[in-house]
Structures are given as structure tokens and as C-alpha cells.
Amino acid sequence: MQVGSASRPRVHREVVAELARRIVSGEIAPGDGFPNTIQLSVDLGVSRSALREALKVLSAKGMLEVRPRTGTRVRPRDSWNLMDPELLSWCRPELDPELLRSLLECRLLIEPGAAALAAARANAAQLAGIEAAFDRMNKAADLNARIEADLEFHVAVLKASGNLFLAQWAGTVSSILLATFRISAEMTTSESDAFTAHRDVMESIRLRNASRADRAMRHLLSIAAKDLHIKAAQARSNR
Predict the structure, then answer these.
(1) What is the pLDDT along the chain (239 residues), one digit of tens a residue?
(2) Is 1 domain-assigned?
(3) Residue 224 forms part of a structural domain
């Protein structure tokens, strides 16, 4: 198709996202060769140059290996740059047990400790940020607003830890956290429990009780983990 200069960036993003979706979903599995570029460009309705640029992007993210003689192949997932925000945005944790387990383990290792640090270090402005996010969760008019406020709450806690690496980690994984928060928010059976758990985290930090903040965050994450495992089981059974 003919692509105007103004639409080229949009087309480029769409091609990258579509190829990434095929890889992440397993439609093109690790070790598999990519389809012939001529046929693939026809299937996608884009030029071969646009396709080559998209392949370069995915190669830079560790998803593809391009060799002159053997062609383009999908690399094993442990070679992917899973800390790349864009790559994470393409993932669907409810359909990927290993990714879901890894994310939950990572959160359990990081967020309780961050909450404990926040209880010890948060300044007045950071405490106000945590409380404001909690208040937005409480007053959210719809699901999307509640999910956004939930993310703001967890990011605010991580930033209040006073640790530069934890603050940046929040930005890196925000896309996949949003996906998991959406799953949890849709599980209405635990909504009241999750709200109470968020409040306990906030109060523990406000009271400067580090050990209580650690326990409260662990409890909050256990609620999220339960919801995610239920949703994941449902999603896999419907495939």
C-alpha cells in the first residue's frame, strides 16, 4: 500500500506491534524461522523496507536473531529484554503462566521492602502522593480510573522508598502492572479486601511502621496473586 509521510510512524508502530504479538502469543515460537519477507510484507500490506525496519526493532529488543544465511529466527524468551516497557506492553500475563509467576515473584521480592523503606523515609509530599492515589481509587467513577489510581498508588510507594533503582523499576514495568491491575480489578469478589489492604499499606507507611508496612504489602500482593491465578486458569481453559 502507499503510505504518506505523515502516516509512516503509525504504520511502523503497527507493524512492530503485530509481529511482536505473533511472537509473544507463540504463533511464531522460539527457534522458528520467520516467514519469507516478500510474502510477509504482502500479508501485512506494507513495503519490504517497512518490514525490515520493524524486524530491526524486534532484534534490538532481543526477540529476533537475523543471520544472512539462515534467515530470521525467534530467540528464546530468556534472551528478550523483558525490562523494555514496550516489550512488556505486548505481553498478556493471564495467558502466560511463566511470565505471570515471574512477575508475581518479582513484585513480592521488591514491593514489601519498598513499603518498609517508604515507612522509614517518605517525606510529607510523598506521603501526600500515596494518600492522594488511595483517595482517587476510593472515588474512581469507573474501572479505568480505578486501575490508573491503583498504578499511581504502587508507583508512589516505590518512589517514596527513597531508592533510585526502585523508582525507575516502577516506570519500567508500569505497562504490565496495568495489565495485571485490570485483571485483579475485574475480579469483584476481592474488591473490598483489596481496598482494605491498600488502606493498611498506606496507614502503615503514614505511622512509620516499617514491619507492618512490609506485612501489609505482602497481604495486598497475595490478594492480587489469587485473582491473577483464577483469571489465568479461566483464560487458558477458554483458549
Answers:
(1) 444 444 566 778 899 999 999 998 888 889 888 888 888 888 888 888 889 899 999 999 999 998 877 788 999 989 999 888 788 878 876 667 788 788 888 899 999 999 999 999 999 999 999 999 999 999 998 888 988 999 999 999 999 999 999 988 888 778 778 777 776 666 555 678 889 999 999 999 999 999 999 999 999 999 888 877 766 666 556 65
(2) no
(3) yes
Looking at the domain assignment, is residue 2 inside a domain? no
> Domain containing 161 — which CATH number?
1.20.120.530
Domain boundary among 78, 103, 130: 78
Residue-number span of the structural domain to which 232 is assigned: 85-238
Instruction: Report d(CA 213, CA 18) in Å as an integer.
Output: 41
Count of structural domains, the chain: 2
Q: Are 212 and 219 in contact (CB under 8 A)?
A: no
Neighbours of 171 (CB within 10 A): 12
* Dist CA 76 CA 215 (whole Å): 36
Cβ-count burial 57-66 (b if 16+ within 10 Å, e if not)? bbeebbbbbe
Measure the N-to-C terminal CA separation of the chain; round to a whole number of Å: 33
What residues does 71 pair with on adjacent strands?
Answer: 67
Task: Give dist(CA 193, CA 171) in Å, integer.
Answer: 26
d(CA 117, CA 236): 37
Task: With residue 56 as reference, give the H or E element that holds it.
Answer: helix 48-60
